[in-house]
Q: What sequence folds into this?
């Protein structure tokens, strides 16, 4: 997972997450509390496109991703962090040509790539949320990614439930929403979510309706959408979700005020998934968390670095 540098006095750590829709690099300075982020770098690398169709990372996405890794490699040479973690998530868990991408990507990046399990991803997401969000007591955390959705329930001491579902906004866009945005497609997604949650009904029953936080791009985009319209929200409720759903159904793939037109298809898929989860879990509202996977990785790296210094 990590590749230490030789300078023990260096307090910088780097977390790279290779997501299904984008690649991210965070550089942070360690300290007595939560690591302080000093630089963020992000690039679209749509690895999940095509997964729902043939389980394959396409040539364009492959080239896009490898180019990004080369760029990250140059940035890491500049920062010279003491520790680096490079974690790949759902797209590289699922793709049948993931090994090829990793074999070509590691030399460009200069660090090993670790493909993490959905359960480990859920743990890191929860860890990052707790480190970066002022919340107490038992909460539910929902992260809708490009090719998977992680659901975690826990308090300050431990997680009571965690699971990674192979349901993401990009794969859903290429599946249920492939023929366009429609009421039938939204209903199909809701049914898929309900079926995915069914095996865990007994475990999740005590947590229906509890405080919930979202950490995904979809959730962040929803908050940004309402803020751009001059009506900022403290939390998303079924009312706002229904409003956005109706707008999407009326607009189709056309521009949605406050949202980049290119993002409409994946955003619509994310809204459909979020609606399905909030309905099935009877969540009255969903707030925006302050951190997720990347922040969780930084916390883990800082802890490892502190342990080696003892």
A:
């Amino acid at each position: 997972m990590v590749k230490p540098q030789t300078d023990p006095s260096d307090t910088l750590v780097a977390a790279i997450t290779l997501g299904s829709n984008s690649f991210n690099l965070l550089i942070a300075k360690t300290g007595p509390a939560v690591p302080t982020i000093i630089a963020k770098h992000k690039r679209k690398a749509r690895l999940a496109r095509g997964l729902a169709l043939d389980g394959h990372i396409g040539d364009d996405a492959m080239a896009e991703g490898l180019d990004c890794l080369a760029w990250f490699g140059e940035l890491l040479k500049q920062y010279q962090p003491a520790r680096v973690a490079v974690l790949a998530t759902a797209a590289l868990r699922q793709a049948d040509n993931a090994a090829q991408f990793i074999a070509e990507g590691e030399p460009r990046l200069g660090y090993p790539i670790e493909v993490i399990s959905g359960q480990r991803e859920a743990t890191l997401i929860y860890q990052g949320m707790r480190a970066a969000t002022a919340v107490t007591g038992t909460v539910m955390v929902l992260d809708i990614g490009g090719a998977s959705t992680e659901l975690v329930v826990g308090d300050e001491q431990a997680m009571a439930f965690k699971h990674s579902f192979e349901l993401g906004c990009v794969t859903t866009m290429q599946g249920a929403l492939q023929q366009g945005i429609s009421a039938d497609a939204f209903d199909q997604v809701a049914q898929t979510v309900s079926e995915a949650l069914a095996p865990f009904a007994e475990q999740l029953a005590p947590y229906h309706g509890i405080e919930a936080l979202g950490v995904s791009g979809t959730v962040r985009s929803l908050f940004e959408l309402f803020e751009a319209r001059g009506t900022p929200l403290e939390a998303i409720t079924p009312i706002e979700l229904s409003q956005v759903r109706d707008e999407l159904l009326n607009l189709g793939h056309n521009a949605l005020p406050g949202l980049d037109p290119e993002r409409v298809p994946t955003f619509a898929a994310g809204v459909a998934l979020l609606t399905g989860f909030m309905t099935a879990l009877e969540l009255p509202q969903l707030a925006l968390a302050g951190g997720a996977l990347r922040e969780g990785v930084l916390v883990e790296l800082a802890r490892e670095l502190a342990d080696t210094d003892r």
The beta strands are 12-18, 22-29, 36-44, 83-88, 114-115, 139-144, 149-154, 159-165, 212-214, 287-288. Residues 1-10 have pLDDT under 50 and may be disordered. The two ends are 21 Å apart (CA to CA). DSSP finds twelve helices and ten strands in the chain.
